[in-house]
Structures are given as C-alpha cells and as structure tokens.
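hiii so um. not sure if this is the right channel but i have a protein structure encoded as tokens and i wanna go backwards to a sequence. like what aa goes where. can anyone help
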C-alpha cells in the first residue's frame, strides 16, 4: 500500500514540474514543499517497518510427568571383587620376578626377590653381637654365683655382691637386645622375598627385574577370589541411592559383545571425588557373570537413576533468573515467558523439574540464551 502511495506522489510531482513551465515557480513552491514532506514521512515509515525483527522459530517440548526414572549408560572395566596390592616392605633393587600378569599363584609362593647381600651381612653382624652378649652374660652369671657363695663367710663386702648382680643384669639385658636385633635382621632378610598371601590370580604387574623400588610401592595386584565387579565413574553421586540394599539391579553387557550380559548390585560409591577428573568411582558386583566377562574387559552399565517424580526436559532447556534455574514457556499468544523452577535431579543430558511448570506447557528446548521474556516466537519442531 505504501509503495502505491509513493508512486502516486512521484507522478504528481512529475506533473507539477511539467506544469511549472507554464506557471510561476513561486506559486507552486508551497505545494512542492508539502509533497516533499509527505514523501519523506512515507520513506521513514517504510524503513521502520523493514527493521522490525521477525518472530524467532523455536523448538519445544510438551511437559509431561515422567512415568519412570530415566536411566543412563556408563562404560566401565571388569575387575576382581577382592584385590590385594602386593609390595615389598623394604627399599631395594629387584633381582628376579617369578610371575607375570594372569598367573595363578598359591599362598606362600615367591613372586619377586630383592637383593639380599645387605640383609645377609646385617644378620651375620647381629648374630655375632648376640654371641658376644651371651658370653658376657654367662661370665657375669658365674661371677655373681661366686660372690653369693663368699658373702656368708664375710670374705667380700656387700657392695661387691651388689656390683656383681648389677653386672649380670646389664649383661642379660644386652643379650635380650642383641637377640631382638637378630630377629629383626632375619625379618629383613625374609622381606627381600615377596610372597603371595593367599591363592589367587595376578591381575597387574607394576615392576620388573632390575628396577629399584621403595618400601610400599605397588609390585603386583592379586585377585583373591573369582567374584567380579564392574567399575565406572559418575559425575554426581546423588544420582544413586546411598544404601546398596535399596538400589535396583544394574544391567551390564560386554562392550565387544552386547549379547553377553548379566545384572549387578551396587557395592559402594567412593566417598571422595578423583582430584584429576572430579568424578566418583562406583563398584557394582556382578551376579553370575559369563566367562566372556574376563578381568580387564570393557562393559556398558545401564545405571538406574534415583530421582523424584517430575517433568523431564533436556538440559539445554535450562536458563537462569538470578541464582534460580528457569525455563522459557510458550504462552497462548506465542510469546516466550520465563518461569523459575525447582529441580528434583538431573543427568548429563536431562533435568527433572519438580515445580514451576504444569503438564501441557510448551517448554522451549533450544536457544534459550538468546531469548527475552515476552519475545514473539514461532513454535517449530516438537521434540518427543
């Protein structure tokens, strides 16, 4: 309509200029000024109309109460149910390692050996000291016995008897101390051999022959039973019940062959997050696992999530109003209205809203960071 109006005035001006050839220019000047003002106003109106932002198309989801708690899938590793880390109790250099990963060992079996020359020398020195202390104790005992026999006849003074008794007690103490030193040296020599504390399977080897290790440094990991766990990490421990007796069963399948599957029961959740990944370790005990689920194999875990009832929406639908979570809802006038909500829980890809929206509300699920309250939108793709 505005374009037709503009064309009309342009034709009028053209007609006026043609007429001006025959008439006085001053007589037509007011009419020309009025026509120019009208054209200017018409052009401004067209520019303002062209700059108006069109309604934004948005994706949305109709809010519906969750019929069941959503689950989430994690990838974990099959490990032994009972694992023992084996380490030397002394510093030293490993001279031999008798077993490799996967070896089945028996209680008392020697697994690795440290250099023992120093231990043998310490034992020899302690033994010599003990023999010397024993000889001194025997001599002090003979002297005390002699003094006790001479005392009744008055051949010696009382102080000489007391001195002989003190010498014997001192020698006896040195003998006990040297005997303890011998036992310590024997223990140190025995500790140069790392033995299996129980029957089991070696699941990890952390050192080799020729390597210098410290006391307490891991050398082997021993699985002492045939029971198996699957171990995986989660970002939020609140997703799982604290008490394992209340946890529903986990579905576990072999990553390389999903047909190999079993169930598991929550064993424990690490009380502290890993400082590197900021995740919590979860262990699930497998119930009658198939033979294909060998130690070290990767498995997928369908993890039942513990959440309160509510409306499940994609995590991308969440926005904020100050410090409170919020979502945008499409009203009857196709305008985006923001509402603060209360969250009942969340996973890596979704959130459960406990209050703030109602069943049937159209919740915008994408691009919420660019929306403004009251903005006109076009409901586009409906997400399931």
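sure thing!! here u go:
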């Amino acid at each position: 309509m505005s374009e037709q109006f503009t064309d009309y005035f342009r034709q009028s001006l053209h007609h006026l200029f043609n007429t001006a050839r025959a008439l006085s220019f001053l007589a037509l000047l007011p009419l020309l000024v009025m026509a120019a003002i009208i054209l200017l106003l018409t052009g401004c109106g067209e520019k303002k109309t062209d700059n108006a932002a069109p309604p934004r198309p948005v994706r949305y989801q109709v809010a519906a109460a969750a019929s069941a708690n959503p689950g989430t899938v994690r990838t974990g590793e099959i490990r032994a149910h009972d694992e023992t880390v084996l380490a030397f109790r002394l510093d030293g250099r490993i001279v031999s390692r008798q077993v490799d990963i996967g070896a089945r060992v028996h209680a008392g079996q020697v697994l690795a050996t440290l250099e023992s020359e120093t231990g043998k020398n310490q034992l020899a020195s302690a033994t010599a000291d003990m023999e010397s202390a024993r000889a001194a104790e025997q001599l002090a005992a003979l002297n005390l016995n002699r003094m006790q026999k001479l005392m009744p006849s008055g051949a010696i003074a009382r102080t000489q008897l007391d001195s002989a008794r003190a010498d014997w007690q001192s020698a006896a103490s040195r003998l006990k101390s040297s005997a303890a030193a011998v036992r310590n040296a024997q223990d140190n020599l025995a500790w140069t051999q790392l033995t299996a504390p129980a029957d089991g399977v070696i699941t990890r080897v952390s050192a080799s022959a020729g390597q210098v290790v410290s006391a307490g440094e891991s050398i082997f990991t021993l699985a002492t039973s045939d029971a198996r766990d699957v171990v995986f990490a989660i970002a939020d421990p609140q997703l799982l019940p604290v008490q394992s007796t209340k946890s529903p069963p986990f579905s576990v399948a072999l990553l390389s062959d999903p047909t190999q599957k079993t169930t598991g029961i929550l064993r424990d959740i690490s009380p502290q997050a890993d400082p590197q990944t900021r995740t919590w370790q979860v262990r699930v005990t497998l119930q009658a696992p198939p033979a294909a689920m060998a130690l070290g194999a990767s498995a997928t875990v369908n993890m039942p999530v513990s959440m309160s009832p509510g409306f499940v929406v994609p995590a991308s639908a969440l926005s904020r109003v100050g410090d409170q979570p919020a979502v945008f809802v499409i009203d009857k006038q196709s305008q985006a209205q923001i509402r603060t909500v209360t969250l009942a829980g969340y996973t890596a890809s979704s959130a459960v809203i406990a209050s703030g929206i109602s069943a049937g509300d159209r919740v915008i699920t994408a691009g919420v960071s660019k929306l403004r309250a009251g903005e006109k939108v076009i409901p586009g793709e409906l997400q399931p």
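oh and The domain at 57-68+308-382 is CATH 2.40.420.20 (conserved putative lor/sdh protein from methanococcus maripaludis s2 fold).
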